[in-house]
Amino acid sequence: MSMIEVNHLTKKFGDFYSIQNVHLQIPKGEVFGFLGPNGAGKSTTIRHLMGFLQPTEGSCFINGLNCREASATIQQFVGYLPGEIAFIDKMTGKQFIHFIAQLRGMNDYTHAEKLMHFFELDASRLIKKMSKGMKQKVGLVCAFMHHPEIVILDEPTSGLDPLMQTKFIEFILAEKDKGTTIFMSSHMIEEVEKTCDRVAIINAGKIVATETITDLKKRKSKKYMLEFQDEQELTRFLDEEYVLERISSTKVMITITGDLQAFLHTLSNYKIIDLDVISQSLEDIFMHYYENGGAQS
Ligand SMILES: Nc1ncnc2c1ncn2[C@@H]1O[C@H](COP(=O)(O)OP(=O)(O)OP(=O)(O)O)[C@@H](O)[C@H]1O
């Protein structure tokens, strides 16, 4: 049985389709990424999972429970991090964390304390005086403090600095080892690549692809900026059969899809003074799907 199941979910706001025919099945223990640009429909899908929205068509289930009908029960056991957290500003971080814990009937804060320590959160401050990143950490502590088996995170790293983003990835990988089922939305391919088993890509309310990270990586091309020691070295390199764009007399941009090994081997024969990896943007990856007719794989 899937832990999370979204069946042909459609939501219309007036005449506008926020999401259309979204279909997802996430088995126990899977870390699933939900990628898409701003306004693609990620939060709308997630809000249905938490039972906050009534579908126009379709349905969703968590652990076999209908998300709309069993909303209260689901909110009790699922770990949830909303995209925009509505905090009670007058509380300190700690008071808020205890408040949420009590709503869940918890009275042991040991794990919450551990999480605060891990995320380096000083929760004694008033929430209204906290930065966006600190508030995000409060949200993460609330999402994980009751050892949930299923976790739903709406853009979990938004507002976190790069060091914390790395810590977050480490944290998710540890949760994955424990067997936690995680569904997380993001618009950053890198964090999804590092943590998830599978990913669905949503654009303009429709799923354009669902695939394993292994397959995504195989298909993904990467660009490298190479700077050669001098023009002669670059000229020599032009004989190699690579798709490249000449940037200057000593610099080229190369696109590599798939096998890196052969590329690295070739590079070892040249005098290179600098190499930069240019990450492929989400849009570039979408282009790939559009070029293939946006077919679902
Ligand atoms: N309550 C609402 N009323 C009208 N339109 C809405 C409502 N909620 C969402 N939408 C629209 O539905 C579309 C999808 O929004 P959603 O918030 O799900 O996107 P998202 O993928 O989470 O984007 P982001 O990355 O910016 O958070 C957007 O065009 C948004 O304006």
Question: Could you characterize the architecture of this molecule?
Answer:
The chain is of the alpha/beta class. 35% of the residues lie in helices and 30% in strands. The chain has helices spanning 42-49, 71-77, 93-103, 110-118, 132-144, 162-178, 189-195, 213-219, 231-237, 260-267, 282-291, and strands at 2-13, 16-27, 31-35, 57-62, 65-66, 79-81, 150-154, 181-186, 198-203, 206-212, 221-228, 243-246, 251-257, 272-278. The protein has a six-stranded mixed β-sheet with strand order 6-7-8-3-9-10, sandwiched between helices. A four-stranded antiparallel β-sheet has the order 2-1-4-5, with helices on one face. Strands 12-13-11-14 form a four-stranded antiparallel β-sheet. Adenosine-5'-triphosphate binds next to helix 1. The site of adenosine-5'-triphosphate (ATP) has 12 residues, from helix 1. Belongs to the ABC transporter superfamily. Keywords: ATP-binding, Nucleotide-binding, Transport.
